[in-house]
Amino acid sequence: MTYTRLHVKLLLRKGKRPQARAFFDAYYMRTIEWDSPSAAVRMIDQRGLPGRFSQVTCFQYHEIITAIQNMTIRGAPAIGVAGAMGIALAAAHHQASTIEELQTVLRKIGEEIAQARPTAVNLRWAVKRIMGVVEQSYPNLPGLREAVISEAQRMADEDVDANRRMAGFGAELLKDGDVIIHHCNTGSLAAVDWGTALGAIRLAHEQGKNLHVLVDETRPRLQGSRLTAWELEQYHIPYEIITDNMAGHFLYTGLANKVMFGADRIAANGDVANKIGTYMLALAANENQKTVLCVAPFSSIDLNTQNGDQIPIEERDPREVLGLSFEGEPVCPADATARNPAFDITPYKLISAIVTDRGVAYPPFENSLSNLSKSL
């Protein structure tokens, strides 16, 4: 994972090259990666952070589906690559006797993986791309297996490259002295490496810009206070945690001047589906004339979906809301019920700019996003 690169840099600056090399070899890892010797997938278990850092190893595709659904791995770019690697696991381990049999099996598994979480378009995008490889002609079974595995690894590498480009575009929009309210987690943990909105903040920090991040908790799963704050500590970026309902105060009083978040799906008109709470945050920012930046890879943009009304919103287990405790005591009555939509839609008119790995889109988004789609 990229946060270890900072430790390596610090060691190098102190002239400790051998220690830096040893540290890198021992600890460097991505959020998700393919383990070639065992034909397995390793991923950071994000459920234990910040208190416990551990990895999960998956040998079968259904373990990938479980990891996506229970949020062992999360973040639209990361789960897209996880989906591709799930198909790669099936290609590596299924005991098919013919190419046609394996292709049929992978088609079924691909559709099963694509349905693991409905809102993030990256998952279906990744499955569609890798299925394009599955459907090609091969001289033998090993050729098919290797092609699928190689494509999944290629997608992981491309995700890192895309995030780095995106960070460059996003960092240009950040100024020295900015105080940014950041929603959910959009760092290395949300991608294969580097991240989206938090990746831009990190690069701006490394460029020498003095930034301060107000990390909203992002209830109910607390990805902000658990994951984003943890990553900011690794990067030595100044931050403070706030509850979600404090954001309006900081924007109204001028104590924050920008809002940043990622996206799980962006419609053709610029409507953004993102972690629940994004809409209220964008509303408060607009009311107070503050900049709202959405940062997401182009794979999160769904030009086939015209607007946010057409994006399915995942509703998760109510226990995520009801299971919170305070000072060891439950916060809800024993018989309470709850609703738990995982995402909301932020209308395009509330967004100042959408930063992608292909460049920055400005309103009107129907034109700018379409133009970026032609920029390959």
Task: Describe the protein.
The chain is of the alpha/beta class and 376 residues long. Helices cover 43% and strands 16% of the residues. The chain is built from 13 helices and 16 strands. It has helices at 3-13, 17-27, 61-69, 76-93, 99-114, 121-134, 141-171, 197-206, 223-235, 247-252, 278-287, 319-322, 365-373; strands at 32-35, 40-44, 55-58, 179-182, 212-216, 239-242, 258-261, 265-267, 272-275, 291-295, 301-302, 325-326, 329-330, 343-346, 353-356, 359-361. The strands form four sheets. Strands 6-5-4-7-10-15-16 form a seven-stranded mixed sheet, sandwiched between helices. A four-stranded mixed sheet has the order 11-8-9-14, with helices on one face. Strand 12 (325-326) and strand 13 form a beta hairpin. The longest helix has 31 residues, at 141-171. The radius of gyration is 21 Å and the shape is globular. Residues 20-27 have low confidence and may be disordered.
